[in-house]
Every structure is written in structure tokens, then in C-alpha cells.
Write a structure and sequence with these properties.
By secondary structure, the chain is of the alpha/beta class. Helix content is about 35%, strand content about 15%. The strands form 2 sheets. The chain has a 7-stranded parallel beta sheet, sandwiched between helices. It has a 5-stranded parallel beta sheet with strand order 2-1-3-4-5, with helices on one face. Helix 1 packs across helix 11 and helix 4 packs across helix 6. The two termini are about 25 Å apart. Bound molecules: nicotinamide-adenine-dinucleotide. Nicotinamide-adenine-dinucleotide binds next to helix 4 and helix 6.
């Protein structure tokens, strides 16, 4: 039996993972509510591996502390991996992830946010709760016939493009690796920003994509453009976005992620004095909609995440080929070692 320390546990995680474990006694999880960071890494002592999530701090110190406590495996229960120092992990701890789980969950949430923000459903909901049935200030626009720009046409971006086509929108796209037969016209980022009524981000956070939405790209945008971000917070320079919203340079923002989210999102901070003035100001605006990194949260996605994470863990300990391993060697163009070694080192 292998034991893994499961960090940043929420009730829905425990439920979906225990459901998948009911027919196996090969693996068990020790559930911790704490996030994984250099200080909490010690909690994994005596375990064989750890299960981690998007806002855990998996830097060189965390990796060193895990390694010194006998950890061989970090099983990420998510697809994004911008919070991991792969260089530090290489040669010490194998890192696996869940590359795909219901891309529909995130694509549909992005559309839900767009519809809510554009048609001001969030404001209408609050008004009618207070028996205020006025429509003033709630005018939106038809999505049909509008141009939407999609940055990143991977698994989620493609589903998002399909939905947008269903609405009768013109779809522009930017991706360094364009997909054939996608019903979208590929253009440069600048063209996409200048021609789109709505821009939706579906690329990973890398050093190339950090602040892909910045002062420059915002200046190119149509007045009243709407920005949707369900990918990673640091794709947007939040201060530049706030300035653009205050000066009415952009029409609105729907944010499921935020660059400084790690200390706040997924937790109830309703009794806390929020110190992040940019987030507080963004939340004060009627044309900003924030959800708490919720786009993945469907039953289908949770089931998919638990299944693939557990399969990754089994494959690791059964010494099978680790197709879902990510490593510094591969990302640096070093070529994949899995062909002959089944794993990255
Ligand atoms: P994916 O790997 O299938 O697709 C990512 C796409 O981005 C690829 O086509 C890639 O070529 C493209 N890309 C890479 N660099 C780019 C650049 N510089 N500019 C434009 N495009 C670029 O990933 P996916 O499953 O579609 O997920 C996309 C992102 O969604 C993830 O990286 C993650 O950050 C985010 N995500 C968020 C949630 C949530 O709950 N909010 C859940 C899952 C994933």
C-alpha cells in the first residue's frame, strides 16, 4: 500500500478521490487542508508521494524538503503546472499531471461568465432579490455577429471556439501551434486584440504568455471590449486592466483567475480585511465579474481528475511508462527520455 499526502483538500476533492479508491487497496491518501509549501512539506514525512494543486508553492525549497523526507512523486491533480520548479525537481522527484479532464467544464464556464457579464445577469439577480425590477443600466449586446478573439486553441480553446460558432460569432484565434480545420481565422495577437469585441484567454502561463494582456494590448483593443480569463491570473497585468476599466477604455472583465489569487481563492475570506487593493477595486466595479477559480468544478471534471491522478500514481509505482510526466529536460528541448526509460530520469 502506498500512502500519499494530499494537500489543500476540499470536501469535494475527498469525495471524488475516495469514490475512485473504493475498489483498490493499493493507495491511500492522508488528507491535509494546508497548502503545500516549504513549511508544510514536512507533513508528507513517511509518505511515498504527494498530491498537489494549482495554488501550492512547489518551489526549489519545497522540493528539497519533500526529497529529504523520502518523497518520490508529486501527482498534480490539475493540468496547469506554472507553480512548479521543474529544474529543481529534475533528477529527484517525478512530477505527473492530469493533462485533460472535461475541457467542456472550463469552456462552458467562460461562456457563462461572458453571458452573465454582457447581459448583466449578476446585477439583475441582486436587484430582483431586493424587489427592484428596474432595467436601467442592464443593456447588453447580441453575441451573434460579434468578433471574439481566442488566445490558445488547445483542448479548452477548441471547445470554446465551437460554442462561439454556435452563437454565430466570428472567431479569430492566436496560437503558435495552429490547429487544422478549426472554424476560426488565425491572426497575430495584435490583430486579434484590435479586431475583437471579446477576448478570451485559453493558453498556459509561461514566460512568453505572462502579461499577454498588458498596457500595449489594451491600447489596441476596441473601446468596450470584454476580456475573459479562465486560464491563469498572470496572463493579465491586473494593474493595467484596472486602469483601463477605470478610464472606461475596456468594457468589462470576467475573471475566474487572478494573479495574486493563491492566498485568497478557494477560501472563505468574508471575515478578513482584504489587503489586495487591486482585487478589492476590481470587485467594486459593476462591469467586473470574479469567480474563485471555479471553471473546472463540474462532477465530470472532478471524476476525470480523480481517475487520471490515481492512474498516474499506480503507473508510477508499477513502473509503467509515465505519459503524463512533465519535466525540465523535455521542456528545455532536451528530447523525451520516456522512449527508452519509460520516465524522465
Ligand atoms: P492545452 O495544453 O490543451 O492548450 C493550450 C494551448 O495554448 C496550446 O494549443 C498551446 O499551443 C497554446 N499556447 C502555448 N503558448 C501560447 C502562446 N504564447 N500564445 C497563445 N497560445 C499559446 O491546455 P488546455 O487544457 O486547453 O488548458 C488551457 C489552460 O487553461 C491551462 O494552461 C490552465 O492554465 C487553464 N485551466 C484553467 C482551469 C480553471 O479551472 N480555471 C482549469 C483547467 C485549465
Amino acid at each position: 500500500m502506498k500512502t500519499l499526502a494530499f494537500y489543500d483538500t476540499k470536501p469535494y476533492d475527498k469525495q471524488s478521490f475516495e469514490q475512485q479508491l473504493k475498489d483498490t487497496d493499493e493507495i491511500r491518501f492522508k488528507y491535509f487542508e494546508n497548502k503545500l509549501n516549504p513549511d508544510t512539506a514536512i507533513m508528507a514525512k513517511g509518505c511515498d508521494g504527494v498530491v498537489a494543486f494549482v495554488n501550492d508553492t512547489i518551489d526549489a525549497r519545497t522540493i528539497e524538503n519533500l526529497y529529504n523526507n523520502g518523497i518520490q512523486l508529486i501527482a498534480m491533480r490539475c493540468s496547469g503546472y506554472n507553480n512548479i520548479d521543474f529544474k529543481a525537481a529534475y533528477g529527484k522527484i517525478h512530477v505527473l499531471r492530469v493533462p485533460a479532464y472535461s475541457p467542456y467544464a472550463v469552456a462552458e464556464h467562460a461562456i457563462g461568465m461572458l453571458l452573465t457579464l454582457n447581459r448583466k445577469i449578476h446585477r439583475g439577480y441582486n436587484r430582483t432579490k431586493d424587489f427592484n425590477f428596474s432595467l436601467s443600466g442592464l443593456t447588453g449586446f447580441d453575441l451573434h455577429g460579434k468578433t471574439i478573439g481566442v488566445i490558445g486553441t488547445g483542448k479548452i480553446g477548441q471547445k470554446f471556439v465551437d460554442i462561439c460558432n454556435g452563437f454565430g460569432m466570428k472567431v479569430l484565434a492566436y496560437d503558435p501551434y495552429p490547429v487544422e480545420n478549426l472554424k476560426a481565422e488565425y491572426v497575430s495577437v495584435d490583430e486579434l486584440c484590435s479586431q475583437s469585441d471579446i477576448i478570451s484567454l485559453h493558453c498556459p502561463l509561461t514566460k512568453d504568455t505572462k502579461y499577454i494582456i498588458n498596457d500595449h494590448s489594451i491600447k489596441l483593443m476596441k473601446e468596450n471590449a470584454i476580456i475573459i480569463n479562465t486560464s491563469r491570473g498572470a496572463l493579465i497585468d491586473s494593474e493595467a486592466l484596472l486602469e483601463a476599466l477605470k478610464s472606461k477604455r475596456v468594457g468589462g472583465a470576467a475573471l475566474d483567475v487572478y494573479e495574486e489569487e493563491s492566498e485568497l481563492f478557494f477560501e472563505d475570506n468574508s471575515d478578513t480585511i482584504i489587503q489586495d487593493d487591486v482585487l478589492a477595486r476590481l470587485l467594486s466595479l459593476p462591469n467586473v465579474l470574479v469567480t474563485s477559480h471555479q471553471a473546472f468544478l463540474t462532477n465530470e471534471a472532478l471524476e476525470g481528475i480523480a481517475k487520471v491522478t490515481i492512474q498516474n500514481i499506480k503507473d508510477f509505482f508499477d513502473e509503467k511508462r509515465l505519459d503524463n510526466e512533465i519535466c525540465y529536460h523535455c521542456t528545455k528541448g532536451g528530447g523525451c527520455k520516456k522512449e527508452h526509460k519509460l520516465r524522465c530520469f
